[in-house]
UniProtKB/TrEMBL annotation, chains A, B:
It comes from the Bacteria. This is LacI family transcriptional regulator. GO terms for molecular function: DNA-binding transcription factor activity; transcription cis-regulatory region binding. Keywords: DNA-binding, Transcription, Transcription regulation. SUPFAM superfamilies: lambda repressor-like DNA-binding domains (SSF47413), Periplasmic binding protein-like I (SSF53822). The keyword Transcription regulation applies. The lineage of its organism: Bacteria, Bacillati, Bacillota, Bacilli, Bacillales.
DNA sequence: CTGTTAGCGCATTCAT
DNA sequence: ATGAATGCGCTAACAG
């Protein structure tokens, strides 16, 4: 391994001089600078970033920890984070938390390999987060309500989103509305469900537990849930599905078995993933501010890093996206 | 910042003992181990991973460099890489190469921050790659034909894939076949086109340049391309689209303007992204071995790292996925 | 089983 | 403008 020492030797200068030359510090004459650069080139010298970071005790990079690096949902979030990070001259690396305590993510959290991090992964424990956060290592939490020193949560108003979705259905004349939810440990899913409940109550519609079915936020989960709903003797006229992926799965199932969307059953999703715009019919859904969330998270990290004051927590709002999978019940009856 | 020294002091042991205890080396008595651990706990000690890496000159992580962290295509690839990496006890971090020479990716390439890397990004120059590769830093190149020492390319047989797709269309009786390609600098796209050409020639079908239109591999590009094709007075009976995303866009356009797929026009795509299975009608396409590619890349990295011999390069094959968007021209004429 | 010590590769202060 | 010397936090060889 060729080090800066080797370069210095070859260029007949001291290490410090080599370092200056390599890093563009202007203390060194053009003459020697070129000598050093050439020596480095000849030896194919690569600097060891860690050593540099160790010395400077600054990594100039932030990490984004996701429970799963793949999935359509994350694309926009990542873009948001990235855009702001590069603005600040920081690097972004993404890693996943599969494996929990032993994951790559854990290493970044506990070993000071980055200057700060943004977490959207529910298999990282609150305890780990609390222990890791410090003035020099701020953490932004996405979709997790945990206020601590040096830790700021950004959540989206899932409950209100669920409320809006359900209210919209009710306004369209539906009062037999099913709910396809997420896994029990999903805080998001739970909040969306509460919004659903609230809308129901407000309109004096009884909640029917047989019409609450739980999926796992995947396309397949949506199919299965749809199947369960379709199998019952009385069928709801509309479904609020807790995320778009499941909604797409449900739509597919209904199409397969000849139940028409929206003529026979209306569907509203949640998230507004890219894909939802391209289905036939186009999915009516609730906009989740993914990009904004990423960008804001990035912003907050840098404020924290700069020692500025920030809000204790942030809440982002949702928005109804009306497309083609919800039909007015009157239209339906006439049809 | 609390260091291992502080911990040692508080526990009344030497640094080495603290290090052993912290790292679970069994040279130390249970008694002292607990003492050290407790001291660490009390001081909220976090180890500096860099310092450790520096000392060990091993990072135990590999990087995956993508030109864009988002996009449906990458999900499966990432899974493949990841699965193998964790098998080997390695961590995986993903970073993107947006920004070219100054990107995060570049840092990882040139600053030895990881033990090896897998690159699927065409804005990283060959030169950079050549300079970075070394026995201690193997590089696996995806979809880029560049054989060098310590650098092994994995490519998919795009040409043959294009050939298969086109031949399939011809066998179904089509001889007016348009091609929607990718950007000019896409090697993949170019190869797929060559396969198309070869199939045409083999069946003595003249290539018509007006039926070659170029998109940018996005959904919108596909829509636009479809529009251009539809606008011509004579219309092809089939289209080979160089990737699924564009095929989806094209299908959407055709549906919008009342051109039926496949009754009026057959479409075959390329990649077999998850989504293509969920369209109506379901997209006929060519399978791109994404997961396998990732897994293989990972494998190769570890072989290289272990100093084993590997093939100079790998070629992965494609497979026709027959679904619903290609119709036999006879059926069509009868219809 | 525990302590002393020598670097890992680099940036940087203080002389010169 | 340049060089010698120091130490960042950690691991591991060696000595006790």
């Amino acid at each position: 391994m060729v080090t800066i020492k080797d370069v210095a030797k070859r260029a007949n200068v001291a290490v410090s001089t080599a370092s200056y030359a390599l890093n563009g510090v202007k203390k060194v004459s053009e003459e020697t600078r070129r000598k050093v650069l050439q020596a480095a080139e000849e030896l194919n010298y690569r600097k060891n970033g860690f050593a540099a970071d160790l010395k400077k005790s600054k990594t100039q990079t932030i990490a984004l920890i996701l429970s799963d690096l793949s999935g359509p949902f994350y694309s926009e979030l990542i873009r948001g984070v990235q855009d702001i990070a590069v603005d600040h001259g920081y690097d972004l690396i993404a890693c996943n938390s599969l494996g929990g305590q032993n994951s790559t993510a854990a290493k970044f959290l506990t070993e000071r390999r980055v200057d700060g991090c943004i977490i959207l992964a529910h298999n990282i424990t609150n305890e780990m987060i609390e222990k890791s956060a410090s003035p020099a290592f701020p953490i932004v939490l996405l979709d997790r309500q945990l206020e601590r020193a040096h830790t700021v949560p950004i959540i989206v108003d899932n409950k209100n989103g669920g409320y809006k979705a359900t209210t919209f259905l009710i306004q369209k004349g539906h009062n037999n509305i099913a709910f396809i939810g997420g896994p029990a440990d999903s805080h998001d899913g739970q909040m969306r469900f509460e919004g659903y409940l609230e809308a129901l109550q407000e309109h004096h519609i009884d909640f029917q537990s047989r019409w609450k079915v739980t999926g796992n936020f995947t396309r397949e989960g949506g199919e299965l849930a749809a199947k369960i709903i379709a199998a019952q003797d009385e069928r709801p006229t509309a479904i609020f599905v807790a995320n778009d992926e499941m909604a797409l799965g449900a739509m597919e199932y209904f199409q397969k078995v000849g139940i028409r969307v929206p003529e026979d059953i209306s569907i509203i999703g949640f998230d507004n993933i890219l894909e939802s715009k391209y289905t036939a019919p186009k999915l009516t859904t609730v906009q989740h501010p993914k990009y904004e969330m990423g960008a804001l998270a990035s912003h907050v990290i840098f404020q924290l890093l700069d020692g500025e004051e920030t809000e204790k927590s942030f809440t982002l709002h949702t928005e109804l996206i009306m497309r083609e999978t919800v039909i007015d019940i009157m239209t339906k009856l006439r049809g």
